[in-house]
Each structure stands twice: as C-alpha cells, then as structure tokens.
Write a structure and sequence with these properties.
The chain contains four helices and two strands, in the order βααβαα. The protein is mostly helical.
Length: 90
C-alpha cells in the first residue's frame, strides 16, 4: 500500500434533499470542485492539512488527534484489500 498518496474532500456537505443537483458534495474530482466558490486550494506542500486536498499522512495525523486508532484502521483497510484480491484470484 502506498502511504504517500493524496486525500480529496468534497467542497460542500452532502444534503440528501438535493439529489443529483449536489454535484460538489459527492464528487471529489478537482476539475469539478475547483468551479465551486467554496473550494479551498492547498497552496503549500509544507502545509498539507488545509484546503480540500491533503496528504494521506496529514489525514492520518488528523484522525489520530480526534481519537481514531490508526493501527486498527489500517488493519481493516488491508483486510478489505486482501479480501478483494482473493475474490478476483483465479
């Protein structure tokens, strides 16, 4: 697993009442979100936990600060990946 990846966040909170009209709340694609007035661009690689695109390591630090057990989370992620690979193994 590559741990130097990027994390992208939607630029609006999801509202189930908006349905398909809520394109900024469920898509994390930069080419779409950059058109939203609420989109915050990350301007510095040194500050990797601001805006709508963070480093994966910044997300991990944030999750640890709010009490998430990162060892357990990564264990569960690996479990899902391995089980997915087993499903497609011939």
């Amino acid at each position: 697993m590559y741990n130097e990846g990027l994390v992208r966040f939607a630029s609006e909170t999801y509202d189930i009442g908006l349905g398909k009209g809520a394109k900024y709340s469920h898509l994390t694609n930069f080419s779409i979100n950059k058109k939203n007035a609420g989109y915050v661009n990350n301007l510095s690689a040194e500050v990797d936990d601001q805006g709508h695109k963070w480093s994966l390591q910044a997300l991990g630090r944030h999750l640890e600060q709010v009490g998430v057990d990162m060892n357990l989370l990564w264990s569960r992620i690996y479990d899902v990946v391995l089980k997915s690979l087993i499903c497609v193994d011939s």
